[in-house]
Hints:
It is built from ten helices and nine strands. The chain has helices at about 5-30, 55-65, 80-85, 110-130, 150-170, 190-200, 210-215, 220-230, 255-265, 280-299; strands at about 40-45, 65-70, 90-95, 95, 135, 175, 205-210, 230-235, 270-275. A nine-stranded parallel sheet has the order 3-2-1-9-8-7-6-5-4. It is globular and about 45 Å long. About 40% of the residues are buried. Magnesium ion binds next to loops.
Amino acid sequence: xxxxxxxxxxxxxxxxxxxxxxxxxxxxxxxxxxxxxxxxxxxxxxxxxxxxxxxxxxxxxxxxxxxxxxxxxxxxxxxxxxxxxxxxxxxxxxxxxxxxxxxxxxxxxxxxxxxxxxxxxxxxxxxxxxxxxxxxxxxxxxxxxxxxxxxxxxxxxxxxxxxxxxxxxxxxxxxxxxxxxxxxxxxxxxxxxxxxxxxxxxxxxxxxxxxxxxxxxxxxxxxxxxxxxxxxxxxxxxxxxxxxxxxxxxxxxxxxxxxxxxxxxxxxxxxxxxxxxxxxxxxxxxxxxxxxxxxxxxx
Length: 299
Ligand code: MG
């Protein structure tokens, strides 16, 4: 081994050690129990029982649910209805779930344009409702033909710059959601979503971690959330085997590793239910809320 190579290895070892020590002392100086983060739970519209928004919000308030995540389709026409139903309540709009048409990595320009225009309409409504952001998937498996990877990413960055500026002008953000491989080939990992946010370099472009998709794609819930870091603006949650209420899949429904990362990040946003149920909502929903609160305490 020549001297240069020895020096290189020594320097690399020191650097690795420094990173390790930094990470360790970081968690020592910020003990989990002193995290300022608290668990803000949110429901999509179909989660709470009830036939009207008011019935659903009554149920949610009794459980201390802080956020409401409506779907984006037709949202512009629902702004007043949602504002009225939320008046005087301790519930805010968390995020807006998709609802756009077209897709951003389409081969055909008309489909990309359709996505830009429909997303802008939803972003404007999201801003009026005080939402953290609007959730967007750049392309689903079924949306074909799509551009191949390098070109898709390049064109996406350009589109996101425009959508990010539009979102900022409306006091909201666009939230990129990675999905599992059965639903999307283009964006599956939080670290990749965060890298797109970094490369877009626009405060209006952020990302989301969905425990359901993370179950199939990520090697570590903790690592995934930490890799998303400051770009993380929303979290989805469901049981981990069948996408039902957290707890309906028994022991598989452990979220403490991910919650520990959210605590260390002082994550200030929402953890939102996106799932079905096999049981009666009046029973399975409060049970899921209790499970998540207890796991948050343990994390
Ligand atoms: Mg989701």
